[in-house]
Write a structure and sequence with these properties.
It is an enzyme of class 1 (oxidoreductase). With 305 residues, this protein is an alpha+beta fold. The chain has helices spanning 3-10, 46-58, 107-116, 132-138, 199-216, 236-242, 271-289; strands at residues 19-24, 36-41, 63-66, 72-74, 79-85, 92-95, 98-102, 119-120, 141-142, 145-146, 151-157, 163-167, 186-193, 195-196, 223-226, 249-250, 253-255, 262-265, 298-300. 27% of the residues lie in helices and 26% in strands. The chain has a 5-stranded antiparallel sheet with strand order 6-7-13-11-12, covered by helices on one side. Strands 1-2-5-3 form a 4-stranded mixed sheet. A 4-stranded antiparallel sheet has the order 15-18-17-16.
Amino acid sequence: MNLETIYQELLTSIKTENVCLAEPLRDHVYTKMGGNADLFVTPESINELRAALDIRKSHHMPLTILGSGSNVIIKDGGIRGMTIGMGKLTNLFIEGDKMIAQAGGTIIGASRKALDHNLSGLEFACGIPGSVGGALYMNAGAYGGEISEVLERATVMTQEGDILTIEKEDLNLGYRKSTFQSNDYIILEGEFKLTIGDPIVIKAKMDALTEARESKQPLEYPSCGSVFKRPPGHFAGKLIQDSNLQGTRIGGAEVSKKHAGFIVNIDGATSKDYLDLIKLVQKTVKTNFQVELDTEVIVLGEDLK
């Protein structure tokens, strides 16, 4: 597989600024760590996305889709094949109480746009640092709300470039899960059904949730957000705190002293530091409380060789 040849082929149908060789993925994820992508494509239209998929398929390249990188760890060896970043597909339309948002836009931006149009339903998402596509993929939630409560349908592209619309009831939405985790569809957009509301009330709720997030979460350091799913009958952060793990470090990664559910990149952490610390937390909590901590963060790529 000659990457330079494939790169030149991509440039015949995709703008030069949307195709990169050996792109450092640490620049595209919230943890600020990880290796390079062999080929990194950031399509700014459906046609460019389809062209990238066609070329990838013709060369039998591995494919990775990356949203805003808020809930992702890229391993230190990077990602082979083609990585498609969706961050330039950000169109958003509102008509009445309906919002259609492309996958690359932020879910925070969608919640703010809803406020601008006096629409209620996305207040819970005002502090979720992810893309619309990532929010659908994970059925993201916070402060008692989640995407499944407002999503109506999703539009996706298949690996062959066909566009499909999938209704909410066929998305298998559950706690931090969706059908997208078991298929290879590429999320293009989500359609949300919101409610006309009082902008003063909507803004007050968003302000309160933003203040709660900023006061409790270690936003001053790079991180992948909340690392672990909520175990049945427990809170991950409480189990970690009760295990006296806050402040524990491996390399440049540290269990946050501010919020035990977060692991932060405090001093040039590698992905190996981060992943080793996750394993240590899981092992310690299992030993102390016989509770398995499952991660909600997505790990991509290869170890450094």
